[in-house]
Write a structure and sequence with these properties.
alpha/beta; 11 strands; globular
Length: 360
């Protein structure tokens, strides 16, 4: 048996870093509750969904294992596929009249990216979804639907229209921020607020990769799936993370790559040109929270300030001693900022309603 207490990562280091202008640093804690899981030696008895790759049984992270057990597939009808796409997600256990929180993931990732943050939001009483973006995650893509930006957007909209059905608080990390902005601008009725985490929104799509011959693109995708490359990427992503934690996290992060259609779906996205949404940033109408790891080595802090300046209605908060993925490295701090943002905006709305009532 394995017993887990608090957050799975080591405490913040004492190293200092400069503070961004226009921001407030998050330094308080917000802990995951302990729970007990079976060790990997008895993993064959665990009720993992049958569509997950068998390598799920080799994962040691108990938060990943427990969260993986909740992944399910829901049918989503789209115009570009003959049959419904069985789309992977984690559904909420908590129902609420308040706007639901919908968590999407970054480039070539899955809903398992939220294995630490999701429980904190759920324990705080929020109706929370974690949804895999078309082409990534654990959806059934055996019939190989297109996985370009338009298809991803349309699929997500149909998912929202079928199951969520009311304005949501949309949370997107890294490239997921580009997905979120693209979606919010095209379907503003579906998004009440935006939360962008270490946003990768200024890249010019997939660049020269879009012009590669497909045979070369497949070779590149094969490299993208490789354990050494992903280990190195995770080394750059996190701040002061032990090697054994990075190794197990890499196994979690590449689990969806082991599905048989992953290569084709990834090549389709890469050769389609990817996300180019810099021109959409100023068109975002929703109130937005920007969260940034103070020690991000993937996307510069300077771009955090630029994004804050360009978004019409945004606040910027940073997390000290944290790299590119705060919801994995400092889930307590990241989720606290999300909860505070939602509660503060709710209080402001209630105050305005009260003032209007008094006037009338």
């Amino acid at each position: 048996m394995v017993s887990l207490f608090s957050q799975p990562f080591p405490p913040p280091s004492s190293s200092s870093s400069s503070t961004l202008p226009f921001t407030r640093r998050c330094t308080s804690t917000f802990k995951l509750k302990p729970f007990t899981v079976f060790s990997s030696s008895s993993s064959s008895s665990q009720p993992f969904p049958p569509f997950l790759p068998k390598e799920i049984h080799t994962i040691n992270d108990p938060f990943a294992r427990k969260f993986a057990m909740r992944i399910q597939r829901l049918p989503v009808n789209v115009s570009f596929a003959e049959n419904p796409i069985m789309s992977s997600c984690v559904k909420p256990l908590v129902q609420s009249k308040e706007p639901p929180i919908v968590l999407i993931h970054g480039f070539d990732s899955s809903c398992l990216e939220w294995r630490y943050g999701y429980p904190l939001l759920e324990e705080s009483g929020f109706e929370t979804w974690a949804v895999d973006i078309l082409g990534w995650g654990f959806s059934d893509l055996e019939n190989l639907p297109p996985c370009d930006v338009v298809s991803k957007r349309n699929h997500f909209y149909q998912f929202w229209k079928s199951y969520i059905r009311r304005p949501m608080i949309l949370v997107g990390p890294s490239l997921g921020s580009a997905v979120a902005i693209d979606f919010a601008v095209n379907y503003p009725e579906a998004v009440e607020k935006l939360i962008l985490i270490d946003a990768s929104v200024y890249a010019e799509g997939t660049g020269n990769l879009a012009t590669l011959p497909r045979s070369v693109a497949y070779a590149g995708v094969y490299l993208l799936k490789s354990l050494p490359l992903r280990l190195y990427a995770n080394y750059l992503t996190f701040n002061n993370m032990p090697l054994h934690t990075i190794l197990d996290g890499t196994k979690v992060g590449r689990l969806h790559c082991l599905l048989p259609w992953w290569d084709d779906a990834t090549v389709d996205f890469m050769t389609s040109g990817g996300y180019k949404i810099a021109s959409l940033i100023r068109k975002v109408k929703q109130k937005t929270l920007i969260i940034w790891g103070e020690n991000d080595r993937i996307v510069s802090n300077k771009l955090a300030v630029q994004l804050h300046c360009e978004l019409p209605d945004a606040v910027l908060r940073q997390i000290p001693d944290c790299g590119h993925i705060p919801h994995l490295e400092r889930p307590d701090s990241a989720m606290k900022l999300i909860v505070e943002f939602i509660q503060t905006e709710k209080k402001k709305l209630s105050k305005r309603v009260s003032q209007v009532s008094q006037v009338s």
